[in-house]
Design a protein that fits this description.
Layout (H helix, E strand, L loop, with lengths): L1 E7 L11 E10 L18 H6 L14 E5 L3 E4 L5 E10 L5 E7 L2 H5 L1
Antiparallel strand pairs: 1-2, 3-5, 4-5, 5-6
């Protein structure tokens, strides 16, 4: 899509309860992409037991998982290898099967869970 605007969804008519809406104009263009070009799922969900079974658990993995935050530690200030100041915080997740996992988040994400 091109020639459209994303706006706050504050004024009537509100066709959806979502906080944002797309506004289209006479010059808005929408084209269908071939499915081979567009990746339909941008997430790679991995169950907790599979994550724990991965070799090198202390390495960094970029995967997606879903769980409830059941506990969290206090945020801590830290300095990265490049000398930048940031914050980190550990959270404890639990999935629907009762599996638990400790995850550490960094940077701006810390402010969303404090």
């Amino acid at each position: 899509m091109q020639n459209f605007v994303i706006q706050r969804n504050l004024k009537p008519p509100r066709t959806t309860p979502h906080q944002y809406k797309l506004s289209f104009y006479a010059k808005t263009e929408v084209r269908t992409l071939a499915s081979t070009i567009f990746q339909f799922s941008r997430f790679r969900f991995v169950p907790f037991p599979e994550i724990e079974a991965m070799p090198g658990q202390n390495d960094r993995f970029q995967i997606d998982c879903i769980g409830y935050v059941v506990a969290k530690e206090d945020p801590k200030d830290m300095v990265t290898k490049t000398g930048q100041q940031t914050r980190c915080m550990s959270v404890f997740l639990e999935d629907l099967e009762g599996n638990k996992m400790k995850c550490t988040i960094f940077g701006d994400l810390v402010g969303t869970l404090v």
